[in-house]
Amino acid sequence: MAYQTAEDLLSLYDRAPLNRRYWVSFILLALITVLDFFDFFLIAFILAAIGPEWHLTYGQSALILYGGGIGAILGALVWGSLADVWGRKLQIVTGTLICAISAGLIGFLPTGAWGLLALLRILVGFGLAAAATPALTTVVEVTPTRFRTGVTSFYVVFASAGTLLASFTSAILLSWLGWRGVAMLGITPTIAGLLVWLFVPESVRWLTAKGRFVEARDEVARHLGLPRDRVPLPTTKPAAPPRASLAELYAKPRLFWQTVIIWGGSSTAVYGYYLWGPTIVALVLRVPVGQAAKYFVYVAGSAVIGKLLASVAAPVIGRRSLGVALAVLAAICLVAAGYYHGAVVAGFPLMVLLIAASAFFCEGGFSNLAPYTVEQYGVRLGARSAGLGQAANGVGKILGPLALALIAGSSNLVSPQATEDAVLPAFLFLSINMLLVALGFALLGVETHGRPIGLGDETATAIPVGAAGSPREASS
What we know:
Layout: H1 6-14, H2 20-54, H3 58-86, H4 88-105, H5 114-142, H6 145-155, H7 157-184, H8 189-199, H9 204-209, H10 213-224, E1 236-238, H11 253-275, H12 277-284, H13 289-317, H14 319-339, E2 344-345, E3 348-349, H15 350-377, H16 382-408, H17 416-444, E4 460-462, H18 471-474
Antiparallel strand pairs: 1-4, 2-3
């Protein structure tokens, strides 16, 4: 079996069925995503509850919301780089612990400690991105090519499931447990992090790209239930193993700017209507915060349905065409939500229905674009490219709410009338972002459906087993 290549090993791995080992990893990584996003989005409902109690100004509320975005940018870039150097698994677990502990501590804050709340929100955002970046990369890398487009798009559904869980929890438990009790539930992702550490293996593609061929061969043998001697052991050392340099991402400027545009534009729209949404709906419609939270159960539910349908459509339509279509439809719905914000249909606010429709298309788009970035860049830059996307996502977490804050004014919590005046221009801004996403797919995108993920290392040097730089030595 001399002079076997990494492609021999990965070709065998890529022919594997979606067996029990695969689904255990998939389910645990999905659980991480659900609970981490649950932690992130709880603040929308907690802030609406504590704002009057703590007498928060508009600027203080905005800083609390923006903190998660700032943390997410740092977490995505730092942990994405470390995941390419040290592996996916360790970064998933440590990121989850940071997110969960920080979220749980919010429940213990003294009344009025908005500065500490903003700091903890930075850490929640940091941990969310630190875990989500390598988790997404892992799912893309371990899924066989023939299943990848549909299954990895389906994986992104669980981010919306976390949002839906936050909405349900707030609507049902906020009046019973109070905001502190609801915030303390943020510690639950620690359990999922422990399970990932115990049962999820390291990415075979990453091990191969790093030249850790013995570990990669052994994991493929376990995954397929084969004896080790029936699994190829590569004998070519990678010419350029994954590194931590973020500058390498710009070696492909077309992919770089496309990633920034489609992630940043989509997240600006989504986080704009999610993070200020409950407050705006409560003020514009003159309903209690609890009722606004119930309305956003419909929004989160619509987003889940949109992602489910996108995961079915992506293998049929292709990632690029689907990305254009979803972004254009989302832009139309966002404009309509701003224009008809005061209308009621059969006793139900039309604004809520149109925001739900926007979520259907916007987050259906996320289900398509999130794996798309990793697929384009390949394994060697996989976690860093996901980190670039998540960093742009973090900018959107700030830019979306900030746009609404600037349009409405920077005084204390604005009056219902002032908020109503700001709704149309704010939603028009969010719509423009989705049009930019459509252009990013149309002008800069390439189709990845059905194409195997490359290692990103086209050149390699043949080295006999046992020689200097052999597979076993390269794994050290």
